[in-house]
Design brief:
Rossmann fold; about 40% helix; four-stranded antiparallel beta sheet; binds magnesium ion; about 250 residues; binds adenosine-5'-triphosphate; 10 strands
Length: about 250
């Protein structure tokens, strides 16, 4: 059977550092797969390789049976894969709504020529885009913050906005790079609830996550990466119970 996402034999070297070594795994459709491992293990590099932000030295990525090799990040978004960034990459001086709009793909007729030759079409298209942006903001619970500048949003709200931005692409497979890092209390609970809701709505999630409690609560499958190599995969219970992995991760108990 064709895997939903199939990653095969990824290798990536940065100078003297082998960041990914023969990295192979699959992600099942409709599942939440957590990618874990110590700092520098290569988790973000895997995201970069899947989403076209870097070209691996060797290896292949297939999504729903189609090769993504050599495709640009924009082409990969068109296939239905979108990712967030560990360092957020939001526009601090734009509103939450404009950040979502900036992440949406352009449609025919919205450019300057469209505005001259097809003004009503363009106005309708822009209104539809605004509506879509408001819908994704409401989806993550930020409807009341649409007009707020990003720099006035709390960190938790900024993390939710990153997810809203990629939902606006309509992607089915969401790659989230540490969506809960820096969060605690209600903000952490809110992001976890959103991830589960997205799964219930049919999305597939690949999530880089450092918080073991979060992994336990949201993951269906766990991939454990160490020095760029996939050391283990299994259920959260299996991974957390493995003393060898705990030693690598924390030098102790997971
Ligand atoms: N563009 C790059 N040029 C050089 N080295 C890089 C580059 N990107 C990543 N690296 C190195 O590759 C290794 C893996 O980095 P990566 O960011 O994938 O780790 P990570 O598992 O996401 O870590 P963290 O948990 O800290 O985010 C690190 O040693 C990092 O310094
Ligand atoms: Mg990282």
């Amino acid at each position: 059977m064709t895997a939903y996402l199939q990653v095969t034999g990824l290798n990536k070297r940065f100078g003297g550092l082998q960041a990914l070594r023969d990295c192979s795994f699959t992600v099942g459709q409709g599942r939440i797969t957590c990618l874990v491992g110590p700092n520098g293990a290569g988790k973000t590099t895997i995201f970069n390789a899947i989403t076209g932000f870097l070209v691996p030295d060797t290896g292949h990525v297939e999504f729903q049976g189609r090769s993504l090799d050599g495709q640009s990040p924009q082409q990969i978004v068109h296939h239905g894969i979108a990712r967030t960034f560990q360092n957020l990459r939001l526009f601090a001086d734009l509103t939450a709504r404009d950040n979502v709009l900036a992440g949406m793909q352009d449609h025919v007729g919205e450019g300057p020529l469209g505005a001259i030759f097809r003004p009503f079409h363009t106005a309708r298209a822009l209104a539809a885009k605004q509506d879509a942006a408001m819908a994704v903001l409401a989806h993550v619970g930020l409807q009341d913050r649409a007009s707020a500048l990003v720099r006035n949003l709390s960190y938790g709200e900024q993390k939710l906005l990153c997810i809203a931005r990629i939902l606006a692409t309509g992607a089915e497979l969401l790659l989230l790079d540490e969506p809960t890092s820096g969060l605690s209390g209600a903000a952490l609970t809110e992001v976890m609830a959103l991830l589960r809701r997205l799964q219930a709505e049919g999305k597939t999630l690949l999530v880089v996550e450092h918080n073991t409690r979060v992994v336990q609560q949201i993951a269906d499958d766990v991939l454990f990466l160490h020095h760029g190599h996939l050391l283990a995969h299994g259920s959260p219970a299996e991974i957390i119970a493995d003393p060898k992995l705990a030693e690598i991760y924390f030098g102790g108990t997971l």
